[in-house]
Design brief:
The structure is a single chain. By secondary structure, this protein is mainly alpha-helical. It has helices at residues 2-15, 21-32, 48-57, 59-71. Helix 1 (2-15) packs parallel to helix 4 and helix 2 packs antiparallel against helix 3. The longest helix has 14 residues, at 2-15. The chain starts with a helix and ends in a 7-residue tail after the last helix. The mean pLDDT is 90.
Length: 78
């Protein structure tokens, strides 16, 4: 469910005019925070490394959505 939510969130942010590459940077920062975590196979959430790899693999699909949103005038201001 977490991976599906990440994909949907990435698509929504791209369509809203947010750069989807920022999601990768967010998870890289989260990974640097450290802390103890259970092994991924015992967790209900994917590891940061797995999330980053999946998000990066989706950029080819998401960047065109982002570019289209920008061409349509989407300029998030938050």
């Amino acid at each position: 469910h977490e991976t599906e939510a990440d994909v949907i969130g990435l698509k929504m942010m791209a369509k809203a005019g947010f750069n989807p590459q920022d999601a990768v940077e967010l998870w890289k920062r989260m990974a640097k925070q450290g802390g103890s975590r259970p092994p991924e196979f015992l967790s209900t959430h994917p590891s940061e490394a797995t999330r980053i790899k999946k998000l990066e693999s989706l950029m080819g699909q998401m960047m065109p959505l982002y570019e289209q949103a920008k061409k349509s005038g989407a300029r998030p201001d938050c």
